[in-house]
Amino acid sequence: MFGAAGSVKHGLVRREAIASTREPVDGRAPAAEAPAAPARDVRQSLPRDVRQSLPRDVRQSLPRDVRQSLPRDVRQSPSRDAWLVKHPAEWRQIGIVVLYMGLLFSMYFVPWCRNPLFFGGACYFSFLNTVVIHNHLHAGIFKSRRLNLLWRGLLSFGALYPASANIPSHNLVHHHFDDDGQPDWASPEVVGFRWNLLNLIHFPNVAGPNTFSGVQRWAALAGRDDFRKQYTYENLFAFGVTGALMLFDFWSTLFFIVLPQLYGARCILRINLIQHDGCDTTSEWNHSRNFVGPAFNWIMCNNGYHTIHHNRAGVHWSVLHEAHDREVVPRIDPALEERSMIWYLLRTYVLTVWRPARRDVAAAERAAKTLSLSPREVRRAEAEAASA
């Protein structure tokens, strides 16, 4: 069960050709000359994943009728008119973090707020804070480079780990279920109990050390100076603020700040098990479990649509449901679409004792019409370039 920790010792370091790409700490890909706008007939012949990669100015240069024929998630791009943020939907994520901080500091400073309602809310919003980390490290919320980096510090305090760890661990390794031929650091296979509830409980104890060991090796590679500086700032801010609060009131900080912080950090690790256990990570469309309830996805910023996020990481989270319906539904096993995460957890880890046996979930994909996707190596490089 613990063998995976050793098996990833050298994998990411060997993939130096990809890891040596300049770390986009500010969320901006290296400047490149914009391609000329393709003619209409050429544009229509391009695969969809190529069309999605076209810059905003190229899309805007297309004839109006061609633009209108594109799916909304392809033609939609961050609004230049939005104040402060790249996309108007980002205010939902900002609101989540502000409310979370309000719950933490209400319990810390106001004794009346130290009750199960506030504590439960703080734990839940701590998990949502890690969802915002995930989205922010794929595409920065703010237009300002400096503000994006400062925001990472606040998010790191909320989770008590450096938010930038998501770049190597999630964007580069987990998204492609591979560390240069070695296992994903947070693969479901790192736990192997027959009693499935034990897998859910124990998973962070294995995936967490695997992940941070991998991040340290990746950060040590040449050319990672900017990443190391940002990572150090986030560590200092997260643990510095938490430590200062402990000096002022140790027990209030431990119970009403640290416990919610740790709850969110451990929950986001468990999501890797929940969304991928029993799936076929070698397939293109049946590697992830999706939770498609509309209310769930509103508060989770559409993170329930996990397959399409893996395959089209550049699509903004606010329109993932449209791409999911169009591309994933015709190619996914129905068992990998769940309406409710709560019911799935109860059914899989409480009402069922043993870990479910694997089955061929990719059969639906083989029977469906093929849809072009860039190779995973290309998508990994694009994910690094787009990280904010």
Model description:
This protein has one domain. The chain has helices at 3-7, 11-14, 16-19, 40-45, 48-52, 56-60, 64-69, 72-75, 90-109, 116-138, 145-159, 166-173, 196-219, 225-248, 250-276, 294-299, 306-311, 320-328, 341-350, 363-367, 376-386, and strands at 290-291, 337-338. By secondary structure, it is an all-alpha fold. The longest helix has 27 residues, at 250-276. The protein is built from 21 helices and 2 strands. The protein is globular and about 60 Å long. Strands 1-2 form a two-stranded parallel sheet. The model is unreliable at 1-10 and 13-59 (pLDDT under 50).
Key descriptive features of the protein:
single chain, 59% helix, 21 helices, 388 residues
Distance between the termini: 34 Å
| CA-based gyration radius | 21 Å
Indicate the overall shape. Answer: globular
How many distinct folded domains? Answer: 1
Mean pLDDT across the residues is: 83
* Beta-strand share of residues: under 5%
Question: Could you give a short account of the major beta sheet?
Answer: 2 strands, parallel
Q: What is the tally of beta strands?
A: 2
H/E element sequence: HHHHHHHHHHHHHHHEHHHEHHH
Low-confidence stretches: 1-10, 13-59
Structural class: mainly alpha
Helix content: 55-70%
Short account of what is shown:
With 388 residues, this protein is mostly helical.
